[in-house]
Fold each of these.
Amino acid sequence: MHAAASRLSFIFFIVVGLYACSSPSPPSQSGTGGINSGDPMPPVALVRLDNAVGAQLSDYHGRVVVLNLWGTWCAACRRELPSLERLAGVLDKERFAVLGIALESDAYLVQEYLRDRGVTFAEHIAPDYKVLVEQLGAKVFPTTFIVNRSGTLLARIVGERVWNTDDVVRQLEGVYRGELTTINVKHEM
């Protein structure tokens, strides 16, 4: 009986873990730790997959930033990447930045994964991802942060989404013009 209970507990934790990776949560959350909508984004070092350091999130000041935290181990993240890649392809790079940070310590694994799938926007890695995740208050992945031109967090979007829709592009344009102070991305995967 003890073995059966242990097996059942193990299955429960696996199911909960899978749900946490891809759970469709509300588009924007506040009070979840880390930063909240309306807060300035903290300094985030952007480490390229080739381990070159130097860029900071603040280097994108003046652009609307779509910052996605993802991992190769996360099925929902993997499903979402092509949609973000297409979004990055249609947005004006002078006014917008779509950035992906892999929560991984093995840059080679991430490079191979992205190259095999033709994904180019997600060129950053967080080797010490626990610090970044705690700093930003991310608990479920993927998590995407929408940051306005002045560096303020507008929305924390939890769970996979379809990013390359006309509606999302229209909303991001509205954020750029200062007409919108948040964004709502539907969960339509």
Amino acid sequence: MPVQDILKRAGVEAPVLTSVQVDADRVVHVISIGAAEPLETAKKFLTVSEDTGYVPLFIADDDYQDYMDSLKSNHKLEAKGGDTKAAKLIAAGEAVDVDEWVAEQDEYEFEDGDFSKERNIWSVIPTADKLVLVPVKRSWQIPAVFCFGDWNECPPAEVHIALLKRWHDKYGAELISMGMDSVYCLVNRPVRTRDAALALAKEQAVYCHDNVDQGAGDGTLSGLAIDLMDAEAWQFWWD
């Protein structure tokens, strides 16, 4: 879909700063949205993503050029109709058995804790005056386009896709901002109970164990669960 049609369907007027051809079927666009209510502007694109085939994304560390350069190096133009790298990664992510993957991460053992930690309000979503329009229908597919992950403690792209899809389906989580080593989600249906929060904390701890080992946690799963309860934003970062 032409970028001007995407903007029109979202009800947004914005100049296009740059466009990058990812493969024969996908083009990534960067638009300038100004500083006024950037998150609300992004949500407009989310509401029509099934129709347009594009979702919004902020670059958390504002290094848009590095992200655009990575698109060029991670993908090569392939014949239309063939399986592209992004399509292969999305398919691989959908094939991951999340329960099995979580169970296999037995090198990460965390104490349950006693729910005594003081709650930390989860971070505000990093936004910017520029917005990336990513050519996928669902935000959990974004890591496939950017080939995100598979370095140090950061899982490979297919694991990001699998877990973000599960959390989208269960909690309405939307990947909305990324840095070079970080991921931020909007959460439309936060967990409300201790049991639900603890179950989610166990998944998130093996996905991003720094959320337990570092930051404002107390080193326990219950500490992370306390922060997850009623949280409308999640953050993850990897060393």
Amino acid sequence: MGGHGALGRIEDGVSGLARPATGRVHHRPRMTSIAILLALASAFCFGAALLLTQFGLRDLSPLAGAAISIPSSTLLMICAAPIVLADGIASWAAVPIFAAVGLLFPGVVTLLTFEANRLLGPVVTGTLGNLAPLFAVAIAVVMLGEPLRPARLAGLIAIVAGIMIITSSGRAETARWRS
């Protein structure tokens, strides 16, 4: 089969990647486009959430807001679980991994984002949130042995440069967070 037959291929329907049993990844343009649209929708929702959070923080503390927000997410996922998990859980080994992910995001991330939003506002908080790829790439390089190719490094430099430009308005509130 050589890893190229239908049975020798591992499909990943979300990322648009097909990985033959040999471990090599082939990009499928249609699925990659869908993955990009999903990522953009996620970014839009994150930005909208930052703005809405600013309104909520007028009346509640970040901890109180998180105490409402996270159970709301939990309720949504509980409602979706019977549909999403209808075919059964594929691997019990993944369950503790996703439980840990849930503690980080939305758990800890929500608390940190709400407090940063209260102190800095949605613009600076959202801008600094764009450093997530920097940390993701660093962790992937260290933990997964992913190569840091020149194009990825250039992208990371562009992200950091963009954040520096966005937050260097010279206004007092941005000068405060940088110090």
